[in-house]
Amino acid sequence: MTRMLIIGPPGSGKGTQAERISERLGVVAISTGDIFRANVKGETPLGVEAKKYMDNGDFVPDSVTNKMVRDRLSEGDVEDGFLLDGYPRTTAQVDYLDQILADGDQKLDVVLQLTADDEELVSRLLGRAKETGRSDDNEAVIRHRLDLYHEQTEAVVAKYAERGILTQVDGIGQIDEVTDRVMQAIKEAQAA
Ligand code: AMP
């Protein structure tokens, strides 16, 4: 049983690694970005609201995001553990997640941060933009998303570091290499 988070700047490959970790550990991966994108595609009220922020690279407001996460974490498939990808991204979201977990008498085992250099990320994301046509993958928006990561999400990482549950992995390299590093880091963190 593992309850963990994966945190990383946009373009760090966290979604790809999250899928792989989820398969190997047998826990469900929950990506707030994917949930938002599915809602945007389905033109649900949540999607219409979220799109206004996502297209500019802004965070969807905590009031919307927190509720969505609380609902998702109340579903049955998280009973055997979960991997949250892309949440929390603000310290207010950390507090909210703490409350959800406390309400369920649960705690996080590992917080994994993927690290990568900003210029490497920008070039990766510009490449991805050509392939996928994601509407939040143009250079100005990419740089804004990176700024938000530094301004807000690094404070999230610092909180988990203080709690002693943070493990950092270099996200640069072949996908398989990074997965090997990630799985090793999780094993070590769980043994600690
Ligand atoms: P991602 O796929 O994780 O890069 O997320 C794509 C976009 O979804 C972000 O740029 C935000 O607009 C929105 N989003 C995802 N997760 C969150 C979150 N925890 N808080 C606020 N907005 C989020």
TrEMBL record:
Pathway: Purine metabolism; AMP biosynthesis via salvage pathway; AMP from ADP: step 1/1. Residues 31-60 are annotated as: NMP. It catalyses: AMP + ATP = 2 ADP. Pfam families: ADK (PF00406). GO terms for biological process: AMP salvage. GO terms for cellular component: cytoplasm. InterPro entries: Adenylat/UMP-CMP_kin, Adenylat_kinase_CS, P-loop_NTPase. Keywords: ATP-binding, Cytoplasm, Kinase, Nucleotide biosynthesis, Nucleotide-binding, Transferase. GO terms for molecular function: AMP kinase activity; ATP binding. Catalyzes the reversible transfer of the terminal phosphate group between ATP and AMP. Plays an important role in cellular energy homeostasis and in adenine nucleotide metabolism. Monomer. HAMAP family: Adenylate_kinase_Adk. Belongs to the adenylate kinase family. This is Adenylate kinase. It comes from Arthrobacter globiformis (strain ATCC 8010 / DSM 20124 / JCM 1332 / NBRC 12137 / NCIMB 8907 / NRRL B-2979 / 168).
